Structures are given as C-alpha cells and as structure tokens.
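Supplementary notes for students who missed Thursday's class. We covered one full example, reproduced here. Read the sequence, then the structure, then the short commentary at the end.
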Amino acid sequence: MSSPTFDGPTLYILTGPTAVGKTACTIELAQRWRAPILSADSRQFYREMRIGTAFPTEEELAAAQHFFVGMLSIHDYYNVYMYEQDVLKLLDELFRKHPVVIMTGGSPQYLDAVCHGVDALPDPDPATRQYVTNLFEHNGVEALHAQLRLLDPDYAATVNPHDGKRMMRALEVSLQTGKPYSSQLHNRRAERNFRIVKRYLNRPREELFDRINRRVDKMMADGLLEEARGLYPYRHLNALNTVGYRELFDHFDGKCTLEQAVTDIKTHTRRYAKRQLTWFKREYEEVAVSS
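Structure (token representation):
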C-alpha cells in the first residue's frame, strides 16, 4: 500500500467490510508511521464482547497504541454523538505529537460522525430512557417501530425496522422534545481543522465471503458459544442486538438448532459486508488487498 504525503495533521481512515483484513493492514501502517489507532468498530467498544467482535488480540494491541477498544461495558450508554465528541477531543491531543492518526473499523455511521459531524440532540431524562428501554425489552423492535410510526412517520418510513438502536434513539428524542426526531436532523456537514484521507480495503467477492465463513468457524472454535451463553441474561441490551449474538440467543431460546444459528451468522455477516461496501463506495477510495 503506497504512503500518501501528509500535509498538516491528518486523520487517515482505513475501513472496509468485516473480515477483509483491516487489523493487520492498520497495524502495519501504524508501525510504519508511528501513528496511534482509533477504533470505529462500535461492537469492539464493549469489553465483554471479545470473541464475537473479532477483538484485537493482546499481541495486536501491544503492536500499536489503540483507543476506543474495550472502553465500555455492555451496560453503559453510548451513542454516535458522544463518540464524535470523544474522538475530536482526543485528536486535539494526539495531533500535538503525531502528524497522522489512523482510524479503522467498519461502522459507517461512526466514521461519518467524525468526518461530517452529527446533530447535537438532547439526551433524554432517565424516565424517558427507561420507558423506551422497557418497550424494547418487553415488546421488541416491532413495538418500537409501531410507536415511531405514530410519533415520526417520516423517520419510521426510512429507518431499518430491525435497527433497534436507531429507533430507540429516535423515540427518546421525539418523546423528550415533543417534536419528531426527523425534524431535528439538519444534516449540516461540520468543518474539521485536520485533513481526512479515506481508503477502504476490498477483496474479490468470493474470497471475502470465504474469509467471513472461516472467521465464524474460528469464532465458534475459540468459544463464541460459551461467550454468548454468558451474555444471554443481558440479551435485551442494545450492545448485544448484533450479528453473532442474536443468532445464538435464538438457539438458546429453542428457535433453531446450533447448526442453523451458525449458518445464519455467516449469512447475516455476508449481507452486512455487502451493505458496508455499498456505503464505502460513496466517498472512499478502494484499495485491493490479497492474502
């Protein structure tokens, strides 16, 4: 991979679909440029979810300075706006010592927050948050979507009806302010005082899908079933509403066999990778990688 010329403080974003090989490439660049690494993988924020999120190994964490890896518990509240503010504050410090900082991870909305900013919407009071949390825990995403159709039909028509995290946030803001969530999104692009270079890794489709399948098999061999079983009592938490855990929770609930759950993890991960690629192709430059 060729090295760009850095002119002033530069945030170098190296992203790509799940299992494409971001970790190895990022560490190689971090060592070459003596640059710290900021994670933009929203699932790796949570320290209890190590196997199912392909958490960096101890050796990988020791190979370069990492931030935003395992800094939260699944019980902690965190959102994309908080992440944007935390990253910007940290970058102010890091750029005093490093001309380039690397950001990696495959969570598009978190990458977008740092590049373009998000609207500063109010955090709900505890009663509102508890109401929305209870609605989700006891009635599921269908209830969230039904109430969102009443409070903000415009947003309900565009949001993924299975994305509980986004719907909960929209309901919290709508209930807290008395105004539709969508009416408070101004989509203004923030100005940054540093340069941003955007790259995404890609591989031939069949190769990528094979890597995804083999990664899931390795996760199972490494103990994903036991990790998920330990987290099962907390399955209602937003952090665990994610591929790799949802499917095993269904198995624990008797909805499918273990074999079917593993197959579903692979299928859903491949679909997620395709959605990621669609997002990255909009404004990132492709970098082909090979084994």
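Commentary. The chain has a mean pLDDT of 92. Strands lie at 10-15, 37-39, 66-67, 100-104, 195-202, 285-288. If anything here is unclear, bring it to office hours.
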